[in-house]
Amino acid sequence: MKLEFLEKFDFFTGVPDSLLRPFCDWVMDRYGISKNHIIAANEGNAVALAAGYHLSTGKVPVVYMQNSGIGNIINPVASLMNTEVYGIPCVFIVGWRAEPGVHDEPQHIYQGKVTVKLLEDMDIETFIISKETTEKEVLKQLEEWQPLLDKGKQVAFVVKKGALEFHKKIKYQNNNALSREEIIERIVKVSGEDAVISTTGKASRELFEIREREKQGHGYDFLTVGSMGHSSSIALSVALNRKNKKVWCIDGDGAALMHLGSMAVIGANAPKNLVHIVINNASHETVGGMPTVAEKIDFVAIAKGCGYKNAVSVDSLNALDKALMNAKQSAELCFIEVKCSIGSRADLGRPTTTAKQNKESFMKNL
């Protein structure tokens, strides 16, 4: 289905989703990054931006997300937007990963089962868009929803895989030289038998394949396949409870931004055995490459402000090797930002072990 029905709206915010790629390309083609389109740090952040837009214009905002982000909107929807509080209207566009009967990755399975129920439990009326849905049907639904929006209610289009189409595919790139896979190869080489916690998305997939290629097994690594933004907190807790073990966290810029407050908690606890690495390509690459704000911020200054004793930024293999070796030998909390290009191998696979197998082998190795 084409996306002309969205032309009646002029403010969009959210977190990108690969299933919503045609929509993401449409909004980037139409508005780019501007006051009409803000890519949020997390979905709750997007709801707050939407609320501010309505308060200042009286118009209805659109918030987009993968269904895994529903958890992040529950608080601001229930305690801010709901008609029993401020009554702020909003249209949600939700990519339905792992809809019942459709194969998907393990982190999406339960979320897929409860997607519609979660939205309806929050008093958000839903309409499912599939490949068979017509634009006429969607426009009719928006017309039927208008009285609800006028009352300050929220509604949601839940989008099935392959339901949307847009004629352009936006290409995202930066000028950084290093690939994420070669960065992770260097981390694996230096970390040796230390514990590694990796963030959701392609970073964990590449780490898994590197271990396979090197025939090292997977007991050293915990692959945070879901719960985007929380790998550094997992790593903090592991480091605090296994002080005799060096712990490396492989994070991404989008994930770090999603729950940036985690860095303050890490810095306040300052475990001497933790190395926090943010691979920064300033994009949500795993879900299509839409930009993050990470190109415009100073991660090193943030890390130092949060209490990381040793914080550096690198953009070459020589500088990376030096920073990794320094972190390996250091007895203080370390932070390394690595500037990274956008892109991955076309044949990049996915972990062949289950999430529970990963957990059990990691715990046994610890």
Essential attributes:
366 residues, alpha/beta, globular
Write the layout of secondary structure elements.
Elements: E1 12-14, H1 21-31, E2 37-39, H2 43-57, E3 62-66, H3 70-81, E4 90-95, H4 106-121, E5 125-129, H5 135-150, E6 154-159, H6 180-191, E7 195-198, H7 202-214, E8 221-223, H8 231-241, E9 247-252, H9 253-258, H10 261-269, E10 274-280, E11 283-284, E12 290-291, H11 299-306, E13 310-314, H12 317-329, E14 334-339, H13 355-365
Parallel strand pairs: 1-2, 1-3, 3-4, 4-6, 5-6, 7-8, 7-9, 9-10, 10-14, 13-14
Antiparallel strand pairs: 11-12
Helix pairs in contact: 2-3, 6-7, 6-12, 8-10, 10-11
Shape: globular
Instruction: Spell the H/E element sequence.
Output: EHEHEHEHEHEHEHEHEHHEEEHEHEH
Strand numbers in spatial order across the main sheet: 2-1-3-4-6-5
Measured as a percent range, the helix fraction is 40-55%
Low-confidence stretches: none
Q: Quick check: average pLDDT?
A: 96
Total number of strands: 14
Characterization of this structure:
The protein contains 13 helices and 14 strands. With 366 residues, the chain is an alpha/beta fold. The mean pLDDT is 96.
Q: What's the short story on this structure?
A:
The chain is α/β, with parallel strands linked by helices and 366 residues long. Helices cover 42% and strands 17% of the residues.
